[in-house]
Design a protein that fits this description.
The structure is a single chain. This protein has 16 helices and 26 strands. By secondary structure, it is of the alpha/beta class. Strands 11-10-9-12-8-13-14-15-16-17-18 form an 11-stranded mixed sheet, with helices on both faces. A hairpin with a 2-residue loop joins strand 25 and strand 26. Helix 12 runs parallel beside helix 13 and helix 13 packs across helix 14. The longest helix is centred in the middle third of the chain and has 16 residues. The N and C termini lie far apart (58 Å).
Length: 487
């Protein structure tokens, strides 16, 4: 697919142009190794690599169009366009290149620390049950109707993102529900997209390795709502103290949901069991297979979005009652020996606390709660002792183990987690670096009726160690270990 360069520059702030814009281009790239005669190369300044250093290499490879943030000497055949922000230019031009597909969809973005994946997936499943052909962009998987496309990032890069949206339009999708990460907002990956609505789930301690301060993290999340237009809606969790902050400067229609505060969409948890939740949702009693207060919030957001998109309340509630839990989010099963295992993606202090609170609310107090948990390498280190402290305070036995250590030594990560373990909890805390062995140890110690929470990786099917991703699936490993140990 080729487009005229001048046509896809619409909306980009251009500081200078050297050369002709009357050229046909067939690809937008920000990896210099992919630049060729048909490509537009975007010189992106990353955290560790500056694309400007590769401009000469792309020109040698035949590239004829360069988008950069500084003016340099280029051959006469090359068009150099200088803009203030190449991240932003890439997003706008990617949208233009693919025919602005978000304009042709009811695109709803969900942002927040916890609940993004569950909320977007539930929305996709709900609207599919209501008869719509939908798209999904999530941490777990991207979907176009029943077609599944593997997901590599919470929010894809602008070229991949607009390409997926264009495929959805081509396939006849009417709606798309997408996770919007703070990284994606900050890096302008979603610039140029037209959102029908935005949802704020909550904001807690996470990604401070990237954003440096909590205030900056909040500001980035808020900027998503600042850019919604007047025809969109902004739906926020009013029980989170930053819910109203998100609404301060938005031009969108403002709506709220809450469990504890008066709001537009309100719910009360009547029953919370392993069999499911009974909610009073806007005055109507509703049973759902999902578990825990955190899922009550997710379902409230889903209901709110449905109402703001004009769906029938009765039909929506009927469909909600048939929804099932999302992979790796409080995904539980009982072994033949009567031990309950729960797999959850909880990888922040708040998420871990929410899952353990849910278990505490359901348990009879006659059973032992084991928590197997680790923290990822090359990520926010300040949450490590906090997560260990929460696990110890809210569990009977804790096994600290490897998550995705990445380039770090997992022993160092566990040592940092141990700094959060109070002296009174030492005796009930074990350190087992090998994650499989950690899960095996919990199963070996557990008796009938006990509960094992395996937290941190959820849906992930790999473990990243020293730059290599090894096959690793918490759920499958747990099932296999139960089979072996129960023989």
């Amino acid at each position: 697919m080729k487009k005229k360069l001048s046509d896809i520059l619409y909306g980009v702030t251009i500081l200078s142009v050297d050369g002709s814009t009357d050229k046909m281009v067939g690809e937008l790239v920000f990896d210099s190794r992919k630049a060729d005669a048909d490509a537009v190369f975007f010189a992106i300044r990353g955290t560790s690599v500056d694309g400007h250093t590769f401009i000469s290499k792309t020109i040698e490879a035949g590239c004829q169009v360069i988008i950069a943030e500084e003016r340099i000497q280029v051959p006469e055949r090359v068009t150099l366009i200088v803009t203030e922000n190449t991240h932003l230019a890439l997003a706008i031009m990617a949208s233009n290149y693919f025919g602005n597909p978000s304009d042709k969809l009811k695109l709803v973005g969900v942002t927040g620390t916890n609940g993004k994946t569950t909320t977007t997936t539930l929305l996709f499943n709900l609207f599919t049950k209501l008869g719509y052909h939908c798209g999904l962009l999530s941490t777990v998987v991207n979907k176009i109707g029943e077609l599944e496309i593997p997901s590599t990032h919470t929010t894809p890069d602008p070229v991949a993102l607009n390409g997926l949206l264009a495929q959805m339009v081509l396939d006849g999708c009417s709606h798309c529900f997408m996770e919007v990460s703070s990284h994606a907002i900050h890096q302008n990956r979603i610039a140029g997209l037209s959102f029908k609505g935005g949802v704020f789930t909550n904001i807690t301690h996470d990604h401070l390795d990237y954003h440096n301060t909590f205030a900056e993290y909040i500001r980035v999340k808020k900027s998503f709502f600042d850019h919604l237009d007047k025809d969109a809606f902004a739906l926020v969790n009013l029980d989170d103290k930053n819910g109203m902050v998100m609404l301060q400067n938005t031009k969108a229609k403002k709506s709220t949901f809450a469990l504890r505060t008066p709001a537009d969409f309100k719910a009360k948890v009547i029953e919370n069991q392993f069999s499911g939740l009974v909610l009073n949702l806007n005055g109507i009693e509703l049973w759902t297979r999902l578990i825990g207060d955190f899922n009550a919030y997710n379902l409230l957001a889903v209901y709110g979005v449905s109402m703001l998109l004009g769906e029938d309340s009765t039909q929506v509630m009927t469909a909600i009652s048939a929804l099932e839990s999302v992979e790796g989010r409080f995904q539980y099963f009982q072994s033949n020996s009567g031990i309950m295992a729960i797999i959850d993606y909880a990888h922040t202090p708040d998420a871990l606390e929410n899952v353990l609170k849910t278990i505490a609310n359901i348990r009879t107090k006659n059973e032992t709660v084991f928590t197997v948990v680790g923290c990822g390498g090359d990520r926010d280190k300040t949450k490590r002792p906090k997560m260990a402290a929460i696990a110890c305070e809210m569990s009977d036995k804790v096994i600290l183990t490897a998550d995705n250590p990445r380039s770090e030594d997992p022993n160092d990560i566990i040592e940092e987690m141990m700094s959060g373990v109070g002296g009174e909890h030492y005796k009930k805390t074990l350190s087992i670096v090998d994650r499989t062995q950690a899960i095996k140890s919990a199963i070996s110690m557990a008796d009938k009726g006990d509960i094992i929470l395996i937290a941190g990786k959820g849906h992930e099917k790999y473990q990243e160690i020293k730059g290599v991703k090894y096959d690793f699936d918490d759920l499958q490993i747990t099932i296999d270990l139960f089979k072996k140990l129960e023989k």
